[in-house]
Amino acid sequence: MAEKLLNWDEVLIGGTIKDPGNSKQYETGSWRVERPVWNPDTCIQCMFCWVYCPDSAIKVDENGKMAGIDYTFCKGCGICVEQCPSKPKSLKMILESQAKGKTEEELRKEVFSSEK
Amino acid sequence: MALLNELAKKKEGLVSGHRLCPGCTHSVITRQVFAAADTDKYDIVVAAATGCFEVSSGLYPYTSWNVPWIHTAFENAASTISGVEAMYKVWKRKGKTNKDVRFIALASDGGTYDIGFQALSGAIERGHQFLYICNDNNAYQNTGNQRSSATPFGGSTTTSPNGKIKFGKEQPRKDIVSIIEGHHLPYVAQASPSNWRDLMNKVKKALDVNGPTYLNIIEPCTTGWGFPPHMAIDIAQLAVDTCVWPLYEVTNGKIVINYKPKKKLPVTEYLKPQKRFAHLFKKGNEYLIEEFQRQVDNHWEWLLKREECGIEYGTTKE
Ligand SMILES: Cc1ncc(C[n+]2csc(CCOP(=O)(O)OP(=O)(O)O)c2C)c(N)n1
Ligand code: SF4
Ligand code: SF4
Ligand code: SF4
Ligand SMILES: [Mg+2]
Q1: Are B197 and B244 in contact (CB under 8 A)?
Q2: d(Cα A22, Cα B69) in Å, to the nearest integer?
Q3: Strand intervals (E) in chain B
Q4: CA separation for the pair B121, B55 (Å, rounded)
Q5: Domain of residue A84, CATH code
Q6: What is the pLDDT of residues B199-213, one digit of tens each?
Q7: Residue A25 and residue B17: Cβ atoms within 8 Å?
Q8: A43 CB near ligand 3 (under 6 Å)
Q9: DSSP state, B209?
Q10: CB count, 10 Å around CB of B86?
Q11: What integer pLDDT is reported at residue A29 of this predicted model?
Q12: How far, CA to CA in Å, does B233 sit from each of A49, A93, B133, B189, B218?
């Protein structure tokens, strides 16, 4: 990602960063080798994936419910899949290469076709 | 503790875009800390010692923190937070602020058990109101897995490698929680991100204490410990279920064990999935696993006995 470097006289005293949470401008999703795919049909909304995700990459709606994966930041660690307690699991890991050129909906169908 | 759906609606104190390894639990713990904190009631200020978490969440010109966060040196997170807390108290007295602010110092084991210990001990003794959190990943991970006094017996690191002559670290872990307890502070506890409800209860409690508090939290490190990233929380759970990492809290010297596994698993369940312990499973090294088990059992029995005894610091009061 292209970063605009500050001039020496623009740097604040103490190296202060004045925009809280500005690392959201830095995508970590490109690190991913594998990605989790979510199946809302079997999800029991326990939010374990949310509480264990290291990268705040579980999307939450206004009711505090699981609403999908934020692929801009998800690093593909697989913790959410491992911890998902629903039977069958509502999250599955696939290779990034398998996801190429497909919409989330298409992937969902492909990955979870046998479970509905 | 509120339902996770409620907590998930809160503004996050730590956001994405940090550069911790995939599956690193430094951020898992901190997300749970912020979820637990009563941020409607008070603001939070954090001072962080250097280490993996600090370098990956404060990579200039970016920060992943949504709260005031001070990067301090390796050895003085506790001194930094002491100064901030002292200033806040003066401001309050002079009417310069009427905000309710709570203070957190954050470091890993290197910055706590070893190099930051003097600053920590001093800050607790002076009685500042702050919560010190040690995300204990059992070594100096940011510089590539060097042994610390938190590295477990038998653990292989780059400075306690296993080989023909040595079997990894020869000394047992330092019992930091007991050492902190020796300061007779109001509240000290040990927690694990696998048991998030327990961790959150402890954070909430600690932040409401008027005085110094300490939390020792296991922080599985996929890179240094050598397990696949998706297993990070499983490893923490195994540490708890084998009693390698007992969950307990000490309030004014009185200990309560918060979780007693229904079936205490053998330590091999915890050791097996981690590369840093692989050599312990070689033929002829059985005695090392026995020794590991013995140390864990001893400590666990000691905690159980203490709980049974149930007295406070410097008294015979139950
Ligand atoms: C005085 C000093 N010595 C050495 C270093 C180099 N250094 C930076 S981070 C680090 C290791 C940190 O280990 P720990 O506190 O356990 O944090 P972790 O990286 O494991 O999370 C070291 C040795 C430093 N920054 N300052
Ligand atoms: S794979 Fe890891 S980073 Fe991605 S959503 Fe799951 S837990 Fe979060
Ligand atoms: S862990 Fe699984 S079941 Fe629970 S909310 Fe996440 S996807 Fe749904
Ligand atoms: S080396 Fe370990 S502690 Fe450091 S960022 Fe990676 S997983 Fe986390
Ligand atoms: Mg460490």
Answers
A1: no
A2: 13
A3: 43-48, 69-71, 101-108, 131-136, 139-140, 146-147, 187-191, 213-218, 248-251, 254-257
A4: 24
A5: 3.30.70.20
A6: 999 999 999 999 999
A7: yes
A8: yes
A9: S
A10: 12
A11: 98
A12: 11, 17, 19, 19, 10
A45 class by beta-carbon count within 10 Å (0-12 exposed, 13-18 middle, 19+ buried): middle
Total structural domains within chain A: 1
Give the C-alpha separation, B226 to B141, whole Å. 12
pTM (two decimals): 0.97
User: Which residues numbered 208-267 in B keep a CB inside 8 Å of some CB on A?
Assistant: 222, 228-234
User: Can you list the residues of chain B whose pLDDT is less than 70?
Assistant: 1, 318
- Kindly determine whether residue B233 and residue A83, on different chains, have CB atoms separated by under 8 Å: yes
Contact yes or no for B203/B102 (Cβ under 8 A) = no
Q: Which of A100, A18, A109, A30 is nearest to B16 (CA)?
A: A30
In a 13 Å sphere around the CA of A83, the CA atoms on its Cβ side amount to: 28
Query: Which of A6, A23, A50 lies closest to B62 in CB terms?
Result: A23
The 10 Å CB-count burial string (b at 16+, else e) for B49-75 is: bbbbbbebbbbebbbbbbbebbbbebb
User: Is the CATH code 3.40.50.970 the one for domain B4-309?
Assistant: yes
A28 occurs within a structural domain: no
* pLDDT at residue number A116: 53
State whether the beta carbon of A91 lies less than 6 angstroms from ligand 3: yes
For residue A6, being part of any structural domain is answered with no
Q: If you search the block for the tokens 């949504």, which residue do you land on?
A: B66
Q: How far apart are CA B113 and CA B213, in angstroms?
A: 15
